[in-house]
Design a protein that fits this description.
mainly beta; two-stranded antiparallel sheet; rod-shaped
Length: 124
């Protein structure tokens, strides 16, 4: 297998042949991690936020049969800041291969879904 690229010493296209097993082991071996693939797990996350407003009694008194009404705006996974400005959530970073669990490893994981909602709570 020849890895595409330029030889840094000669400036010519790479012609070095390496066994495919060596290449894939260096890329996908979860037992060792090169330093350039290691990042800080420090993060701040706004996981859930809910803002509610109770309608005044003078307003609900005008509506027949309604004693109380509350409207809420809700959001989940609204903000994530990581020390190294990474594009993944350190909280979801883990991998499981061949029956082994590797915590703190991000192996092509999707970020947590961000969601928004409106809630109307009416007491009759």
């Amino acid at each position: 297998m020849i890895i595409p690229g330029i030889d840094g010493q000669t400036g010519q296209p790479n012609q070095v042949i390496i066994p495919a097993q060596d290449y894939y082991k260096s890329v996908y071996d979860l037992s060792t991690y090169p330093e350039f693939l290691t990042f800080s797990g420090t993060f701040v996350k706004l996981r859930q936020l809910s803002l509610s407003y109770s309608l005044p009694a003078r307003f609900t008194a005008k509506l027949p049969g309604i004693q109380k009404a509350i409207i809420s705006l809700q959001g989940k996974n609204l903000f994530l800041w990581t020390k190294d400005d990474l594009d993944f959530d350190p909280e979801n970073a883990f991998s499981s291969t061949a029956g082994t669990f590797a915590g703190g490893v991000n192996f092509e994981k999707l970020p947590a879904a961000r969601s928004y909602g409106i809630k109307l709570n009416i007491v009759f």
